[in-house]
Inverse folding.
């Protein structure tokens, strides 16, 4: 029986299910074609969905009958239609296995089945085009003797994902059964994730939820948007609780109930409170002391926040093997502590 595996790094613009890998063939992925990609040539459609794979590699997969539409073999010139089921057995990309690299890691929890590590900001989770080294996977391969390969040889141990510039707690599976069980907990929304963020703008309610569908930006491939389009947008819900208000800024806790790309960042921006120093959604990639106190001399100024102010602070789950609850917390990074102290001094809440 094919069991869905949770993976944040799968293509996000189509409805997708990842199936168990088939030895000697690769990962099987099934996509349901949406209206916005209807009419595209099959090879163009696959290149859009799998940017980490070259067009020639995907064309070879088509020619080898490793791609089917509605369970029928096809040609690369075939055009996909809305509602088609496209199944592809993805070959592993032609590149060496991720090399172990002695990158320092803060391990928040570890046993023989799983671990939770505190991912630093500016670290990509797994190797991909343009980032073949220095990733979390390279660090994991050095620090842990055994890692699950359920998500492929290039994503050992990876159960879910954090954005490059989001720091904090991330789960790692050491063996396949635990990985599969954790994936099912994510699918059934039984794993509690809490993030903290500093926003540019003041949230008007002490606690609330933002429930808006999320879709790709029509012109900017990096950016996501909220939408009311029920065909294109994916449902998304984020709860939040205000921790502290400042004049013009908010320190807030967020609990995403779904796992969409950039969900917290998009939802907060949609209510006029983008994450501080989030270049994509706030337009700025840094935050300085002079932003709070313009009369400071140049020798007194300093950079407070040099990346998006979003941190995965807590993970809570039932251990899939012991059935005991686990709660893990990643401490606030120094730049958060520094920024909050400056806000309390220069922009205290009323």
């Amino acid at each position: 029986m094919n069991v869905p595996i949770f993976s944040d790094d799968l293509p996000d613009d189509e409805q997708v299910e990842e199936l168990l890998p088939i030895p000697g063939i690769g990962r099987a992925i099934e996509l349901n074609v949406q209206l916005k990609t209807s009419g595209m040539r099959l090879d163009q459609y696959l290149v859009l969905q799998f940017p980490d794979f070259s067009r020639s590699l995907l064309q070879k997969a088509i020619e080898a009958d490793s791609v089917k539409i509605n369970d029928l073999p096809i040609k690369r010139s075939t055009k996909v239609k809305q509602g088609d089921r496209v199944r592809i057995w993805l070959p592993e990309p032609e590149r060496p296995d991720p090399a172990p690299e002695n990158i320092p890691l803060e391990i928040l929890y570890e046993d023989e089945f799983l671990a939770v590590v505190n991912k630093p900001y500016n670290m990509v989770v797994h190797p991909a085009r343009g980032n073949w080294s220095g990733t979390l996977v390279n660090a994991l391969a050095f620090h842990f003797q055994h890692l699950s390969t359920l998500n492929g040889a290039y994503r050992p141990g990876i159960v879910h994902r954090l954005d490059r510039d989001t720091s904090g707690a991330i789960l790692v599976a050491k063996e396949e059964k635990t990985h599969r069980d954790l994936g099912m907990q994510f699918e059934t929304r039984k794993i509690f994730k809490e993030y903290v963020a500093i926003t540019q703008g003041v949230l008007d309610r002490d606690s609330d939820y933002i429930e808006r569908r999320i879709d790709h930006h029509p012109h900017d491939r990096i950016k996501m948007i909220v939408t009311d389009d029920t065909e294109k947008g994916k449902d998304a819900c984020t709860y939040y609780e205000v921790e502290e208000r400042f004049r013009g800024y908010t320190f807030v806790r967020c609990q995403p109930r779904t796992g969409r790309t950039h969900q917290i960042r998009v939802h907060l921006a949609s209510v006029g409170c983008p994450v501080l120093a989030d270049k994509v959604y706030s337009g700025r990639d840094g935050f300085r002391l002079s932003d709070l106190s313009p009369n400071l001399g140049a020798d007194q100024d300093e950079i407070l926040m040099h990346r998006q102010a979003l941190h995965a602070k807590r993970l809570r789950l039932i251990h899939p093997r012991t059935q005991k609850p686990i709660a893990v917390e990643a401490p606030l990074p120094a730049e958060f502590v520094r920024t909050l102290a400056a806000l309390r001094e220069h922009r205290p809440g009323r």
Observations:
- The chain has three domains: 15-90, 106-188, 193-346.
- The CA atoms of residues 24 and 91 lie 9 Å apart.
- The two ends are 58 Å apart (CA to CA).
